[in-house]
Amino acid sequence: MTVDRAAHDITLEGRIALVTGAGSGIGRETAHVLARAGAYVLVSDVDAERASSAAAEVRAAGGSAEHHVLDVRDRSSVRTLVGALIERLGAIDVLVNNAGIVANTAAADVTEREWREVLEVNLHGVFWCAQAVGAHMLERGAGAIVNVASMAGIVALDPQPQVHYNVSKAAVIMLTRSLAVEWAPRNVRVNAVSPGYIGTELTKRGLCNAAWAERWMARTPLGRVGTPRDVANAVLYLASDAASFVTGENVVVDGGYTVW
Ligand SMILES: NC(=O)c1ccc[n+]([C@@H]2O[C@H](COP(=O)([O-])OP(=O)(O)OC[C@H]3O[C@@H](n4cnc5c(N)ncnc54)[C@H](O)[C@@H]3O)[C@@H](O)[C@H]2O)c1
């Protein structure tokens, strides 16, 4: 029996990948990693300057990318952009739902506005994008979606309060499983990556807080803060055909935090 090794290489040669929240941190690094693997990357972010500079950075590094302003909370903008991209480019092979926000407010003090804001970006935004791009993937009978969830969707983190964030990420993990089951018969894979503490804008405040940072590292067996690259490499694997038999999975990239 011969083994077709090429079919299992981690490559995105010739693929088109849309990344949300790609102007900073994990999303920005994911744009680089996917581009290096051969993808044409659609760099999107709610912040226009971040989106354009991230795409320019990918191109300067030798990759192929264009940028778009996209607020994932806005279902109609999501549908308009995705429709226009498919019309022009013919396909979106990979969707990385990465955009996310955090708020560290004690549960008793969370306002309705803040609760809705976190859920709208972290959960509703993931669904609007998955629904718009997924419809097209189902029609083509091919596609891979990777949702950036969090270990906060598995364990209740402390000492920082973030009930709405934790809930949103737990929901993303179940959204991932639900879509995976529904869409597997049409060859659309849906997986999640759940980062632990990664050094980005999102964790800057916590990492500057000695009490929090000390607690975070004491609970992380590998004893360091993760890098956006640590997460982006897992995204790349799940987005590629190397993961063609993997769906509904949640790959935890947390330095071992959730092990004990
Ligand atoms: N950094 C961590 O430790 C960590 C841990 C677990 C999960 N995550 C998740 O990883 C993802 C990326 O986080 P990060 O750490 O890179 O954060 P980040 O703040 O560095 O980047 C997030 C990006 O999302 C964009 N964004 C915010 N709201 C948006 C919206 N409505 N529409 C489109 N884009 C929007 C921001 O402009 C920003 O560019 C998030 O989903 C986050 O919850 C991060």
Task: Describe the protein in words.
Helix content is 45%, strand content 15%. It has 260 residues and is of the alpha/beta class. It has a 7-stranded parallel beta sheet with strand order 3-2-1-4-5-6-7, sandwiched between helices. Helix 5 links the parallel strand 5 and strand 6 (188-195). Helix 1 runs parallel beside helix 2, helix 1 (25-36) packs across helix 8 (228-239) and helix 4 packs parallel to helix 5. The longest helix has 29 residues, at 112-140. The protein is globular. The structure holds nicotinamide-adenine-dinucleotide (NAD). The site of nicotinamide-adenine-dinucleotide has 30 residues, from helix 1, helix 4 and helix 6. Residues 20-21, 23-27, 45-47, 50, 70-73, 98-101, 121, 125, 148, 150, 195, 197-198, 200-203 line the site of nicotinamide-adenine-dinucleotide (NAD).
Category by helix and strand content: alpha/beta
Termini gap: 42 Å
Strand composition percent: 5-15%
Helix content: 40-55%
- The total tally of domains equals 1
Global Rg: 18 Å
How would you sum up this structure in a few lines?
The chain has 260 residues and is an alpha/beta fold.
List the helices and strands and how they pair.
Blueprint: E1 16-19, H1 25-36, E2 40-45, H2 48-60, E3 64-69, H3 75-89, E4 94-97, H4 112-140, E5 143-148, H5 163-183, E6 188-195, H6 201-207, H7 210-218, H8 228-239, E7 250-253
Parallel strand pairs: 1-2, 1-4, 2-3, 4-5, 5-6, 6-7
Helix pairs in contact: 1-2, 1-8, 3-4, 4-5
The chain binds nicotinamide-adenine-dinucleotide.
